Amino acid sequence: MRSVLHLLTLSLLISLTGAKFSGRPGVNYGQLGNNLPSPSESVNLIKSLNAKSVKLYDANPSILAALNATDIVVSIMVPNELIVNITKSKTLSDDWIRSNVLPFYPSTKIRYLLVGNEILSSQDSELKSSLVPAMRKIQRSLKTLGVKKVKVGTTLAMDVLDSSYPPSSGEFRSDISGSVMKPMLQFLNRTKSFLFVDVYPYFPWAQDPAHVNLDYALFESTNVTVVDPVTNLTYHNLFDQMIDAFVFAMKRLGYPDLRIWVAETGWPNNGDYDQIGANIYNAATYNRNVVKKLAAEPPVGTPARPGKILPAFVFALYNENQKTGPGTERHFGLLHPNGSQVYEIELSGKTTEYKEALPAPENNEVYKGKIWCVVAKGANWTQLGDALSYACSQGNNTCDAIKPGGACHKPDLMVFHASYAFSSYWASFRKTGGSCYFNGLATQTIKDPGYGRCEFPSVTL
């Protein structure tokens, strides 16, 4: 009887372990859109993608209620703006758990609680120094309030590393290595949690497409490999390189075995004219291949950790039209806001062939020519005045041509004036971080909006 019980216990343990650490990736559910489906519709769409886990960027009660009794594993997040105060107040920490976890746990399978998003990419020194103390506070609150199955972590971008190439040189930035990362790794190790990292091969490729092979970034390379000169490990894709840089960075601080969870990975399906390689073909290729790799049985792992399961969340569920920044930021979704797929994909890793042919990529090389920044189609005209004032107030004689007597002065045409101001501002300040966005009011065009003596300033690539 004892041997039977032992076998049953072992069987249950294997079953639970397999369920808990499945390599099948989940999906990030962002909400920065004004046209997204309801939480209940979204949960059905998550199921349709065969996702078994979902990561939220808050603890939205409507979404958590919709996830009730679904068997979908959930990761929630403490917002960045609460971290400093949580560090100073056990009461606030306890109250956050009472309000955002206890009403839903355990019937909603909340299993991960991330304290902030990419905090260590911030310039705020108080915020960065508060991160690990806040993680400890939240962990203690969970324990105090009887929540036992939730792991605490935080997400890190690649910029927490001072060095990432070759992978064996992986090292955390000097300003955070001893003060933040070492105590963080100690905490994660003690609580058996994960280092949650955001890994996007798109960005290092797009920054240097002449020296980083596109197929190598897309998991499509058959003849490009990178050999780490220190370890002699051979890399067949950029994703593995980036993951292993974190492995070696942790090893440097004395934590060689701490598990990694890919909190975000993906590829943009569209973008601006000055953003190379953001297209449906590349996005589908990358995401299908990363799913295949992550969901493989037995697990593939990475060169530094062969055969190890690497849990992950693909970014993102939807194209989100209210995300700020370059156009790619609004085009990482697997789904359009109407719920239709941007391209065929599912997250179980079992689909080996897809029926529909992908559109050929048209922007895998840097665009060469002039680009202007103009008022976007459908822009809210009532907001143009403030945006126009902002663009004209930044110096460099940005709006001289639309002043009375100027070559582009059209006092009755607000949209025309705003387009000129946007284009002039962007041409003047792009190199120092200025963008063609203006809270969604602007878009890039390669069609010259000028006429006659009225020449719109442009960006030339």
If you had to describe this structure to a student in words, what would you say it looks like?
- 33% of the residues lie in helices and 14% in strands.
- The chain has 461 residues and is an alpha/beta fold.
- The strands form 5 sheets. Strands 1-2-3-4-5-8-11-14 form an 8-stranded parallel β-barrel. A 3-stranded antiparallel sheet has the order 16-15-17.
- Strand 1, helix 2 (39-48) and strand 2 (53-56) form a beta-alpha-beta unit.
- Helix 6 (125-144) runs parallel beside helix 7 (177-190) and helix 12 runs parallel beside helix 13.
- The N and C termini lie far apart (76 Å).
Give keywords.
alpha/beta; single chain; 8-stranded parallel barrel; 3-stranded antiparallel β-sheet; 17 strands; 461 residues; 13 helices; disordered N terminus
Topology:
Blueprint: H1 2-20, E1 26-29, H2 39-48, E2 53-56, H3 61-66, E3 73-78, H4 83-88, H5 90-100, E4 110-117, H6 125-144, E5 151-156, E6 161-163, E7 171-172, H7 177-190, E8 195-198, H8 202-207, H9 214-217, E9 226-227, E10 234-235, H10 238-252, E11 260-265, H11 280-294, E12 301-302, E13 305-306, E14 312-314, E15 370-375, H12 384-392, H13 414-429, E16 442-445, E17 459-460
